[in-house]
Amino acid sequence: MNPPQSPKAGRVRAKPRLAEVVRVDRLTPHMLRVVFAGEELEGFTTRGPAEHLKVNFPRPGESKLVLPEWGPEGPILLEGQQRPLNRTYTPRRWDLEAGELTVDFLIHGEGPGSTWAQQAQPEQVVAVSHQPGGAYKVDAEADWYVIGGDEAALPAVGTLLEALPPSCFAHVFVEVADPTEELKLESPARFQVTWLHHGGAVGRVGRRLEQAVREFLFPEGNGRVWIGCEAGAMRDIRRHLLNERGMDRARAHTQGYWKYGAVNHPDNDRGQDVG
Ligand SMILES: Cc1cc2nc3c(=O)[nH]c(=O)nc-3n(C[C@H](O)[C@H](O)[C@H](O)COP(=O)(O)OP(=O)(O)OC[C@H]3O[C@@H](n4cnc5c(N)ncnc54)[C@H](O)[C@@H]3O)c2cc1C
Fold first, then answer.
1. What is the mean pLDDT of residues 263-272?
2. For atom 52 of ligand 1, which residue has the closest CA?
3. Are residues 229 and 216 in contact, defined by beta-carbon separation less than 8 angstroms?
4. Residue 7: pLDDT above 80?
5. Which of 29-33, 208-212, 256-260, 271-275 is least confident?
6. For residue 6, is it within any domain?
7. Disulfide-capable partner of 51 in 60, 63, 108, 132 (CB 3.0 to 4.6 Å)?
8. Ligand 1 binding site (Cβ under 6 Å of any ligand atom)
């Protein structure tokens, strides 16, 4: 028998927390809001906007989530045992008082995350990362922000807007399928949203966002850009920002939220290969 496998040495991976579905609300035809609660969420914290966590789902054909044994370095997999099936999502809201964690799931078609969300019902159990990671540090001194996202990044865009200071003006570009997918956004900052529509065009999601960023006349002053979208479109936007506009990379945060033809795109794709 093979010895149990564990993940990369030295990396501490606390056991995911079991979380039970308490409510499911349809925000738009393709966006489902799932609210989770449960005693294992005690101690869960958020550190800033646009964080991410892993949601671990039951495997297709299994009605219940089965997590492997967990050690200090992560899952301890016995021979033949599979890694937990998980995907990356944004903690849209953590209500400490109510002990409720909200995640907005885009129903995009194939994929265990989208498929699970489509059938989600109260009392079902998933497991979420012990703590979310990757919070974006808002520049409290920024005069303006350009925030751009597609529908998978719309939950993150919502958290970013809510975290901006009132002194800032945000120019927001969000690409969704059509007007029925638009959501109400709120912020202490002044902001203007331009909704863009891809109309379900296969292979083209993110391209209207790219065009809008290219055409936007950036204001004077201390500004920052945050972009979250499909990895190919993100790279072209990053190229445009750094190479054509000559933007300082420290002011331009770009992130691939998913990728055409790839399952489980990594949660740390910032387009570093572009520059
Ligand atoms: C930091 C971060 C935060 C995220 N937050 C959220 C969130 O809050 N809500 C959310 O819904 N998603 C979010 N995502 C995106 C989500 O992780 C991906 O869409 C993921 O691929 C979904 O898993 P899946 O099992 O549905 O599809 P997968 O099994 O990963 O992929 C199956 C197929 O679907 C395609 N696909 C994946 N995503 C999309 C899409 N958006 N549109 C069209 N085709 C797609 C893939 O190219 C692949 O061909 C986030 C991603 C990152 C990196």
1. 97
2. 257
3. no
4. no
5. 271-275
6. no
7. 132
8. 52, 87-90, 104-106, 108, 110-114, 152, 155-156, 205, 257-265, 267
Residue-wise pLDDT for 214-231, tens only, equals: 999 999 999 999 999 999
Residue 245 domain-assigned? yes
212 occurs within a structural domain = yes
Domain that holds residue 173: 144-274
**Do 168 and 124 share a structural domain?**
no
Question: How many structural domains are present in the chain?
Answer: 2
| Residue 7 is assigned to a structural domain of this protein | no
Token pair in block for residue 90: 């944004």
Residues 158 and 211 occupy one common structural domain: yes
- Å from CA of 42 to ligand 1 middle: 27
Are residues 168 and 124 both part of a single domain?
no
How far is CA 113 from each of CA 157, 227, 262, 263, rounded to the nearest angstrom?
Answer: 20, 22, 14, 10
Q: What is the pLDDT of residue 130?
A: 96
Per-residue pLDDT of 14-38, as tens digits, reads 999 999 999 999 999 999 999 999 9
Q: Report how far ligand 1's centroid is from the alpha carbon of 129 (Å).
A: 17
Beta bridge partners of 147: 172, 226
CA-wise closest residue to 205 among 228, 172, 177, 167: 177
Q: Kind and range of the H or E element at 37? A: strand 31-37
Tell me how far the alpha carbon of residue 200 lies from the centroid of ligand 1, in angstroms: 15
Distance 107 CA to ligand 1 centre (A): 9
CATH of the domain at 29: 2.40.30.10
Q: Which of 128, 163, 183 is the last residue of a domain?
A: 128
Residue 255 CA to ligand 1 center (angstroms) comes to: 13
Choice from 24, 32, 105, 114 to test ligand 1 binding pocket (greatest atom count within 8 A of CB): 114
> What's the mean pLDDT in 6-19?
73
What's the pLDDT at 6?
Answer: 45
In 3D space, the residue among 38, 1, 41, 46 whose CA is nearest the CA of residue 21 turns out to be 38
